[in-house]
Each structure stands twice: as structure tokens, then as C-alpha cells.
Amino acid sequence: xxxxxxxxxxxxxxxxxxxxxKRPELAEKFNKVFKVLKGIDHRIKxxxxxxxxxxxxxxxxYHILEALNIPIKGIEYKGEVLYKVSExxxxxxxxxxxxxxxxxxxFKKKVKENEISHIAVLLTExxxxxxxxxxxxxxxxxxx
Length: 144
What we know:
This protein is an all-alpha fold. Helix content is 75%, strand content 0%. The chain has a single domain, classed as Orthogonal Bundle (PTS-regulatory domain, PRD).
């Protein structure tokens, strides 16, 4: 099976025990984030025809907790507002906005726009929009 198909199993069997061993108080939040991740995966499958992989799920897990001001690593995350994410990566941004609603519904907390922008940038791995941006930049440089 591919990592895309197996991410849920790996996430619960490998990642979850490590996190909860270090931070057992996160058990309830872990399950809520997992529910949000499944919602993201579903939305991406509808939009892109493929889902997230294990590594993206782990990255999103940390970003979701940080976006909710739940530091996982003991380091306060101070993200800066990302410029024009909605314009440069519209598919990823749309899925990130959907993620914002999932997070707010599940955790009953407001999620800041800059955190949604960070999640959108992570999602460009699946949407391929980051690669397109770099390809366009290289094409412009070569034509200059």
C-alpha cells in the first residue's frame, strides 16, 4: 500500500504512541486533530483525486495544534502573515479555509488567518501549486 493510503494506520500506530507517551494530556486533542485530518484528507480527495500522506499528516498535526495555541514541542510558535497565499495557491487556500472551519467546529476556538496561510502552504505539497509557482518563476528567468 502507498503512504497515501496508509497514513491513518501509521499515524495511529507510530506517531500517536510517541506523542502521547511524551504528552499524555493531549489524548483528547489528538483524537480531535485526527478527526480534522480525516476531514482535510476527504476534502483533498474530492478536490485533487488523491489524499494526504503520513508526513503531511504529521506536519499538519503540529500546525493545527500550534494554530490553536497548544504548543506540542514546548516552543511557542510565532508565525508571520504569509503574503498573497490565497492568490498564489487558490486550491490549497480553499482547502485550508475548509480546514479552518473543521478546526473551529471541533475545538470551539477561533483560528487566525496567518495560521490558515501556513496550512495552505503545507497543502501545496498535495495540490502541486508550489511546483507550478517555481516552474513559472524559472520560465520567466530563462526568458529574461
